[in-house]
Please model this.
Amino acid sequence: MDFVSVRVITGDVARLVDFYEHVTGVRANWSTEDFAELRIASATLAIGSTRTVPLFAPGSARPADNHSVILEFLVDDVDSMHRNLTGFVADFVNEPTTMPWGNRSLLFRDPDGNLVNFFTPVTPAAVEKYAR
Model:
């Protein structure tokens, strides 16, 4: 089995795709106006319109209603990313902070309120865990 992607359902695909293109530097591949994917080496972030939900099961997903999932991206320098995103990201949940498990993390919200974590391993154990 392969874990392929995470899909975020939104009421405004273009707005969310634009946001993620900006924060990741990755261009989206559009399949239709209702579905786009940002393919990164290790995973894909899929963004789908509310109009796609009934294709799976009506009412099974609601946009801008996530209270349990954090989208996480490994970055080379979280402090630099914070400086670059200041003025673009409207809702920083925390400034870059070194976590007890050895990652320096920057937590913010996307335009739909989903939590996003950019992190950089900083302790020897964390660096080894994420060695590319």
